[in-house]
Structures
1.
Amino acid sequence: MPPRVELPTGRFWSPGNRVRLKVCGVRTLEVAYACYELGVDAIGLHALGSRWSNVLSCEDWIAAVPEDLSIFLLTEVRRTEILASLVHRLRCTAIQLQGQISDQQLTEVASAAKELGVKLVKTLPVPAAEDISSALAFLHTVDGKVDAFLLDKGWYGGTGTTTNWKNARKLVLSTNTPVILAGGLHEGNVATACTSVKPYGIDVESSLEWRLPLDGGVVKPKSVLKIQNFASSLRGKPEDIGHA
């Protein structure tokens, strides 16, 4: 494991009552810097699936990102030596663990995150049914080991499907740990979601992307205009969006 590094956690974790904004799936410096200028608090880098090492391509530009912009590593990786290397090389200030995980694995990752001086965020699915006992049980089991929970439609997120806000609010009320809301958020519903759930932060990805055909497949570049419109819907008029 690389030696402990003292990294700033960035403005996503700074004091204040405003709802923080994280844009996930950032792949270029141009989009990262647009996020910074538009008052986004954090960006997320993907290290998912069998091709998770592709995230290392971000190393070519990540050093140019302003230090106060928080950088989340979105990953399924559990091996602490790999996580430490990724955090060190990509200047990440938070590890966001996707998928289900054993208590032992979570304890090991939490210990590694603390040693690295970064935050640990755990994804938690919001049940669609009224019974949220299983979600509450998981929350209370890992509460105290993580720095924040991220509520989404499933353990891995990325579905673009809206979560049950009523149940999400119950989970927010059940912990003093910061809760980040994700799942199907767009400029037309984010203000209502914040009023209904009252989360610490908002995480958004697919609604900020174009879906464009290319070579028989689909590419999903980020739209700076969509990021600006989303931030305006969350925070108010463009001139009110700042770095506070």
2.
Amino acid sequence: MHDNTSDNRRRWVRQKVTVPICLLLEAAPFHTDDSAFTVDVCPRGVGVRTKLVLVRGEWVKVVAKGKSLRSIPALVIWVQKDESSHSILAGLEFYETRCLRCLIG
């Protein structure tokens, strides 16, 4: 669903979905977070909570736990520290839109 409201900067409506995932840094494949999870999804990407230090513009791989062994490449679009939980919130964008079905079933 495309959101066309002028006061909303998001391109897509997001839906709250919590799915346990594993995140892997493409540039450093041994840096992973098996305790990461989604916080919301939209047709082109996903919001995640992770312990990994992510940088805007870097590539990560997303693997849904228990769903598939297939990794989904995603670009880190935004990053925000959550001081209360000592974690990172990040927005990831998929370039293959069919990947979302692999993640949330």
3.
Amino acid sequence: MENRVEKAVALHKQGYNCAQAVLCAYCDLFGMDEETAFKISEGFGGGIGGMHSGVCGATSAVYMLAGLQGSGGSPEKGLTKAATYARIKELESIFQAENGSTTCRQLIERRKAGEGKSCRELVIYAAGLVERELFQIGRAHV
């Protein structure tokens, strides 16, 4: 697999919001074109709609990718919702443990206090989380 973390960073540097950078770096692996991924994730930047009160955009993209990976695609294809929700709760717990929050405003406050990561660093962390947890890349196997 090419380096998707670097791709996410490059997209963020080009002006993609945090959600767009992470989702677009992996969208082709789920049969989604980049333009569609860009459009879908546009409203998730800046803690949902730029309000900074919601979930971090990079984190939102991780959740979207977990849904793309785990969902059956329709109610008739099985009951995948509970498993997807459980997976997202697990991903949220991992992100929170490492970064102190999943809320954009709290992450910004942590950064201002010298305790947190920049948005670009959170994009890097989120893309790495996708690689480790969704694709098992670089994860130690016992």
4.
Amino acid sequence: MSGAEEEPGPGDANATGQADLRLNQGQRRICFELSWENIDGTVVAAHIHEAPAGDFGDIVVPLFEPASFAGTDEFSDCVFGIDKGLIKDIRRHPDDYYVNVHSTLFTAGAVRGQLEKKQPK
């Protein structure tokens, strides 16, 4: 994730982040590990949105909000009760979705990253 990817920008130019998601359609659950560095302000929320790269879209899964994290931090958790069809669509078309992290100084989003399938090692 980076500030340069944020739409509509600008995001936080010197901030970066990483999001790892585990999708479980049968249990209607998305578990995540998020980490971020150098975000200005207090980190207050993170979401999965639906939109391709270069566009912005609606929140489809709130990962956390409201929150109060430092500009360099990490957080992991699971979100339950997610629609099975949504999880299936994220799995099939990850590039149609992105994760972003919001702060008090970047309320529209400090960093963003499009989802992609993890390649097996």
